[in-house]
């Protein structure tokens, strides 16, 4: 993938708070082979769980999976680090490490 395409993909992935929550939750996993349960592990309690699950399953997770940032087991409702996660990891780490300087609702 060309640099411009990577940046466009990273920007699109980070353009929504729900996607940022998924990606940051993956960043924080102690073991790269661990997985998250969705929507439970990304729910911050600010949305109806049914609405969040619908948005995740029909919008956010397909987008992240297509970009290669996540592996998604639809049947098990589990998400793990995808093959292209290393492309976005430095940006996530930078944002996460400087979260005190970001708006309160960035995740």
TrEMBL record:
Residues 46-79 form the DUF7344 domain. SUPFAM superfamilies: Winged helix' DNA-binding domain (SSF46785). This is DUF7344 domain-containing protein.
């Amino acid at each position: 993938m060309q640099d411009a395409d990577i940046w466009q993909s990273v920007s699109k992935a980070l353009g929504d708070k729900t996607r940022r929550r998924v990606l940051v939750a993956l960043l924080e996993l102690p073991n790269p082979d661990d997985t998250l349960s969705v929507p439970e592990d990304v729910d911050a309690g600010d949305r109806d769980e049914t609405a969040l699950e619908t948005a995740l399953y029909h919008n956010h997770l397909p987008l992240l999976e297509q970009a290669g940032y996540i592996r998604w087991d639809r049947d098990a409702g589990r998400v793990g680090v995808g093959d292209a996660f290393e492309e976005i990891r430095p940006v996530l780490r930078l944002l996460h490490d400087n979260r005190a300087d970001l708006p309160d609702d960035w995740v």
